[in-house]
Structure formats: C-alpha cells, structure tokens
Amino acid sequence: MDRKFEKTLIAKILSLLPAGENPVTFLMNTLSLSRESVYRRIRGDNMFTFGEIITLSKTLGFSIDRLADSVPDNNAVFHLFGDVDTSPEETFLQMLHILYNPWLNNQHIEKREVTLSLNKIYPLLYPGHPHLMKFFYYQWMYEIQKHQYNFSYDDTELPQSVLELSQNVPWITLQTFDVTIISEKDMVVNTLRKVEYFHRRNLISAASIAHVKNDLLHVIDQIERFITMGNTQQGGRVEFYLSMFDIPSNSIYANINGKTTSFLWVDPANLMSTSNPTYCAMHLRWLESLKLYATSIARSNYMAQSEFFIRQRNFLDSILV
C-alpha cells in the first residue's frame, strides 16, 4: 500500500479521536494489536491491513474511498456494483442508495449542481414509477444471474425495500439544485428495445408491457413540464440539450456543496462512482464538450421541444401493445 495513503490514514485517525484519547491505546484496543505492532504501523515499518482499515472506518465513521481520493495521486478509486459477496437484491439496494443519496440528504445544502448525459430513460427518473423500477430491477437480475436466463418479468417481485426507497426519493422537479440534461434525440428507444427483446422471448406479458409503457409516458410528461418551465419548483435552474450524436453512456456529475462525484453507467448492471477530483473535473469537461454538438431547448426553441416530445410519444405508441 502506498505510504502516502498510510500517512493520510493516520492523520484521519488522529483528527477523529475524542479529545484526550491516546492514539496508541485506541489502536491497540480497536485492532487487538500489541503496543509494538501499533508503533510499527505509525512509523511506517508495517502497513495497516485492509481488514484493519475497514475496522477503523466503521469505528470512526470515515469513508475509505473518500480517504483514498484525498491522497495526491493520478489514480481514481471507483465504487463498483454487481460483483460482490452480498445477494443481488442487497447489491441492487446498495446501488440505489449510492445513486439517490444526494437527493435524500437535503440538510445544509447551499450548492447543488448536477449534469446528466442520457442515452435512455435514466434510473434517476424512476421514483414514483413502480413498473419502470421493476423493469430495471428485472434487467439487473437477468444480467446478474449466471445460470438462469428464462425467468419472467411477471414472476419477478420487486423487493419491498426497493419500492419504499423509490417512493421516498422526490422526483427531480421538486429539488432545489441546478440541473443540466444532455440527451440523445431518441431517449426512449434503448429502453423500448429491451422491452421488445423480452417480449419476443415470451418473458414479459402484454399487460406488463402496458404498465411499463404508461410509466414511460408519465416520465416523458414530467420531463416536458420540467424543461418548459426552465426551472424547478423551488427555483433551481434547468438546461436541456439535444445531442446531434449518439451518447455512449449514461452518466451524472454532481457537485454538492463543493464535493464532486461522478457516476458512470454501463447498462444496467454496472454502475461505477468516484469522488476523485481529477477524474470528476475530466468528466465535467467531457459533459461540457457535448454541448458543442447539441441544441438547447429549455425555455426556448419551442418548435424543437414539440418535435422532440412528439417523437418520444410516437415511439411509445408503436410499442408492441
């Protein structure tokens, strides 16, 4: 392990200890180490094991990835989801918590900016739409499964914990942040292609497709109201751009009180997130570059707005049922 990280870890431990707490005694008791073992770690003769770092993280309440990202380095630390020891259901819920956390934690936020690149209807827009959330969960389970590829959407149950979380996340129109969306002109097509795939394999019924379709229509209606107003209901600024070219992946850049996070999505099972400031700055530059090949339609260009939403609804009208 890099010595720079060790020094940063020790500094973090010292900053979080209660006043008057002896750091050597604390480390001895917390990690079940001898005094000499603790001194060797403090001097740098021995490194903290990964298990010891996890124990310290849980005991003192600091984030390992943010600690690693604070070390001066060109390497970015990413959170990865989809290949962990927990169950698929638990992993899915953990992923949603990471994704929705900036929207669940509303206290003491003075600055909130978010930029999204969209090549499909993104999970951030699913709250309040249980059938769309279930379809996303079904895709997740389908891709995570290693041996079974014939279980149906209709036989899949959305975990109650996922449903409750999605119901507690306000839709983005209710928020106070400034939001920029850069979208492909055929936003709904990639989602519809997945629906059609499962329909052709007889894994989703016509009735279920109708429910998913209705949720998609509702999201399109919300987005139209959102960009026509040009601001959120609590005064946040809204920008919406239509890209001339295909957007390779969904992504989010978030700036919450000066703390930046980037989310990258490879459909649908692989969400990656990082708070590495160098990477986040690169991500923001890429998002800004997309605007050079896009048309702004928020609060203006009403003809382009109308054509865009008519196009999305026409695609939905042509869906199977």
Description of the molecule:
The chain folds into two domains: about 5-70, Orthogonal Bundle (434 Repressor (Amino-terminal Domain)), CATH 1.10.260; about 80-315, no CATH class. Helix 2 packs across helix 3. The protein contains twelve helices and eight strands. By secondary structure, it is an alpha+beta fold. Strands 1-7-6-5-2-3-4-8 form an eight-stranded mixed sheet, with helices on both faces. About 50% of the residues lie in helices and about 15% in strands. Strand 6 and strand 7 (about 270-275) form a beta hairpin.
Layout of helices and strands:
Layout: H1 3-16, H2 23-31, H3 35-43, H4 50-60, H5 64-69, E1 79-80, H6 88-104, E2 112-118, H7 130-144, H8 160-168, E3 178-183, H9 189-200, H10 206-229, E4 238-243, E5 250-256, E6 259-266, E7 270-274, H11 277-290, E8 294-296, H12 302-317
Helix pairs in contact: 2-3, 6-8, 7-10, 10-12
Short description:
The protein is α+β, with helices and mostly antiparallel strands and 321 residues long. 49% of the residues lie in helices and 14% in strands.
Uncertain residue ranges: none
Tell me the β content. 5-15%
Q: What form results from the Cα inertia axes? A: globular
Look at the structure and give the mean pLDDT: 81
Structural class: alpha+beta
The residue fraction in helices comes out at: 40-55%
Strand order of the largest sheet: 1-7-6-5-2-3-4-8
Structural domain count: 2
Please tally the helical runs, counting DSSP H or I stretches of 4 or more residues.
12
Count of β-strands: 8
Strand count, sense and closure of the main sheet? 8 strands, mixed
- Gyration radius, to the nearest Å? 23 Å
H/E order of the elements?
A: HHHHHEHEHHEHHEEEEHEH
Q: What distance lies between the first and last C-alpha atoms, to the nearest angstrom?
A: 57 Å
